[in-house]
């Protein structure tokens, strides 16, 4: 056979498409484009909702073994611990009964004073019970996923509480589940009120990742003491007033700084809550700001008619 008639092309097994470097450049550019489009225009939000809805049964099935083991562990609690818990619950119930009687009297006095002063009634607080499914996958944030979503009436920005205090705020809503950012997350701020002094301030998640809160922009001579109770102030239009948030446990006053470093311990079980209540945002009940009337030009004195 003449040499010129031989097929010099490589066998199909050695044929390759674009180089690995070209694929890296292409996929990197595509990933960068998707990140920018998602952060600026929320283009992938509908896709996220669809994927969250489709993966919900898989997540539910994957969580069943954990729930079964947890149920078995709860079943084998010793009788001594159960009795101790019952005693503590009985003591707490007695204290709450005493406080409930005082609260009823205060509510009656508050209603009479508001009627006397012709003040607006306090906003009504309604909520939806939900269960914490699992922690969010992002290791740089403090978020949990709960079992109620858009179909159950959960709204974006809704406050979330447990039996001890404020747990966080709804920051992402899917049809069947919602994402809750905890109050110890460094990007979440909550307006608080010092019950002892009545001073209002802002509490932020501790940037050190210690699982606490920090009062910022408080002067070094501010009237704060260890053990002060912080509750929601209710001035932000999101959280109802009077919900317990944290207690001050450490105060650092430094001569070289005009601000004090105030560390607080959250009252809610930020690392162990299983059942929560999602409250309706107070902004939905606050009347809109009235439209400003156009300014009337003043008439000149001595002008001709």
> Would you identify the CATH architecture of one domain?
Beta Barrel
Our count of helices gives 3
Q: What gyration radius follows from the Cα positions, in whole Å?
A: 29 Å
Q: How widely separated are the two ends?
A: 116 Å
Order of helices and strands: HHHEEEEEEEEEEEE
Fraction of residues in H or I helices: 25-40%
Task: Please report the total strand number as a whole number.
Answer: 12
Q: What global shape is seen?
A: globular
Quick one: biggest sheet? Answer: 6 strands, antiparallel, barrel
Strand content: 15-25%
Uncertain segments are none
**Class of one domain in CATH?**
Mainly Beta
Output the strand order for the largest sheet.
1-2-5-4-3-12
Write out the CATH superfamily name of one domain.
Rod shape-determining protein MreC, domain 1
Mean pLDDT: 81
Structural classification:
alpha+beta
CATH topology grouping of one domain = Thrombin, subunit H
Question: Care to describe what's here?
Answer:
- The chain has a domain at 126-284: Rod shape-determining protein MreC, domain 1 (Thrombin, subunit H).
- It is 30% helix and 22% strand.
- The chain has three helices and twelve strands, in the order H-H-H-E-E-E-E-E-E-E-E-E-E-E-E.
- The chain has helices spanning 20-41, 45-75, 79-117, and strands at residues 127-135, 143-146, 159-161, 166-173, 178-182, 189-194, 200-205, 213-215, 229-232, 244-252, 261-266, 275-279.
- Strand 4 (166-173) and strand 5 (178-182) form a beta hairpin.
- It is globular, with a radius of gyration of 29 Å.
- The mean pLDDT is 81.
């Amino acid at each position: 056979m003449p040499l010129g008639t031989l097929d010099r092309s490589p066998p199909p097994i050695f044929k390759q498409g674009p180089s690995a470097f070209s694929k890296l450049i292409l996929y990197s550019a595509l990933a960068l484009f998707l990140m920018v489009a998602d952060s600026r225009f929320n283009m992938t939000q509908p896709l996220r909702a669809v994927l969250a809805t489709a993966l919900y049964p898989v997540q539910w099935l994957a969580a069943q073994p954990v729930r079964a083991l947890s149920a078995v562990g709860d079943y084998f609690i010793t009788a001594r611990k159960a009795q101790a818990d019952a005693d503590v619950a009985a003591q707490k119930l007695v204290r709450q009964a005493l406080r409930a009687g005082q609260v009823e009297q205060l509510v009656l006095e508050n209603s009479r004073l508001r009627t006397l002063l012709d003040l607006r009634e306090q906003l009504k607080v309604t909520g939806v019970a939900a269960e914490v499914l699992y922690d969010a996958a992002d290791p740089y944030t403090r978020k949990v996923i709960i079992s109620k979503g858009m179909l159950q009436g959960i709204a974006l920005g809704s406050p979330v509480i447990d039996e001890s205090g404020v747990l966080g705020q709804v920051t992402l809503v899917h049809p069947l589940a919602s994402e809750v950012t905890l109050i110890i997350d460094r990007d979440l701020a909550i307006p608080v009120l010092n019950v002892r002094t009545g001073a209002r301030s802002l509490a932020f998640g501790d940037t050190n990742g210690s699982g606490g809160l920090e009062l910022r922009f408080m002067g070094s001579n501010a009237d704060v003491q260890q053990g002060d109770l912080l509750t929601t102030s209710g001035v932000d239009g999101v959280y109802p007033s009077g919900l317990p948030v944290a207690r001050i446990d450490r105060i650092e006053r430094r001569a070289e700084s005009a601000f004090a470093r105030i560390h607080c311990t959250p009252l809610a079980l930020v690392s162990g809550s299983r059942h929560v209540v999602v409250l309706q945002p107070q902004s939905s009940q606050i009347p809109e700001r009235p439209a400003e009337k156009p300014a009337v030009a003043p008439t000149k004195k001595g002008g001709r008619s």
